[in-house]
Amino acid sequence: MTAALDWLSNGLWQLSAWQLVIFTLAVTHVTIVAVTVYLHRHSAHRAVDLHPALQHFFRFWLWLTTGMNTKEWTAIHRKHHAVCETEEDPHSPQVQGLKKIFWQGAESYRDATTPETLKRFGAGTPDDWIERNLYTRHGVLGVSLMLILNVALFGAIGLTIWAVQMLWIPVMAAGVINGIGHYWGYRNFECPDAATNIVPWGIIIGGEELHNNHHTYPNSAKLSQKSWEFDIGWMWIRLFQLLGMADPRSTGPVVEKVPGKTTLDLDTAWAVLNDRFRVMAKYAEDVVSPLVEQELSRAGNATRGVIRSARRVLCRDASLVDDEGQRRIEELTAASPDIKLIYEYKQRLLDVWAKRGGNAEELVKELKQWCLDAEASGIQALRDFVEELKSYSIPRAAHA
């Protein structure tokens, strides 16, 4: 009787409280790695190829710990990117509200899992016997086996560990990433949706907190962009690569800056087009920000508030600027001819990419004209920006 009670209390492994905490963190981290490396970067975006054995381990682990199958998750995520921040987006806090997505993100996933969505966005996902007859058909069986295993190993506390495992993805991924990651945080790039980066959650969420970086370069296997950003999912991919079990297909646009290059040619045009989000981030940092600071230093009290309130929206994607933001831009550009000029140049550059991106000759012609006009603007920051722009090129290896 005593032995039975001891087993019910502590399970077969008889772990201490700290050991139980470490175990829980370890298994939930494996789940996060399965989601970010396998479901997200491999299946949804094809940013990394994984060894079949590693793929199947992740499929099995996700069946045990989440009940999710590859096709459903992949289809919902691809649809999210295709219709981001619209009424059709399966989980946009900008449309449905942060409260709903944070607390009911998993329900939003289930509601969006329709046959039409699976057919349109679920191509290329596993369709073998075990997927059809076990992982998809008996999703509840996997999480039930996990519950039995936890109770057997840890006793009554195994119920709590199982509950944490079951809540980990709905809270951290569906709630934090899909909710907060489209609502609060900082933005390295002005991608055409509200995605933000959240720090310092890297170890907990597997690098997925770098959501603005991901939405800017969705096909990149590496989510970090700044030297101080940490993507633990990329660390795992590199480790798997060393073991011969992963092959990253892309880490972002293949461009380089050639020191001393002063001619804007076709390679420059394509490189700038491919890396346009980083180019616009440089424009915000090297052209807009210094000029705004300059205007602030010499502005009177009446206009200083206008400048401060509008500086953030000057470089935002037009689709994210609401009526109030547009009003602030108009006030600021009316108060400062120089800021009006650099804002107009920013809009012109975006127009070059939008309208000339498919025609090489037109792209080079329009970009050259933009550079000539910018150099003649009389604004030193614009001239310096043009000089850096001319140094862009496509590496020789990318031509092969």
| Structural class by sheet pairing and helices | mainly alpha
Q: Gyration radius, to the nearest Å?
A: 25 Å
Q: Into how many domains do the coordinates divide?
A: 2
Number of strands: 4
- Unreliable runs, pLDDT <50, ≥5 residues? none
- Helix percentage range: 55-70%
Strand order of the largest sheet: 1-2
Helical region count? 21
Largest sheet: 2 strands, antiparallel
Distance between the termini: 73 Å
Shape: elongated
**Portion in beta strands:** under 5%
Give the topology string: H per helix, E per strand: HHEHHHHHHHHHHHEEHHHHHHHEH
Can you give the mean pLDDT? 88
List descriptors.
400 residues, mainly alpha, 2 domains, two-stranded antiparallel sheet, 21 helices, 4 strands
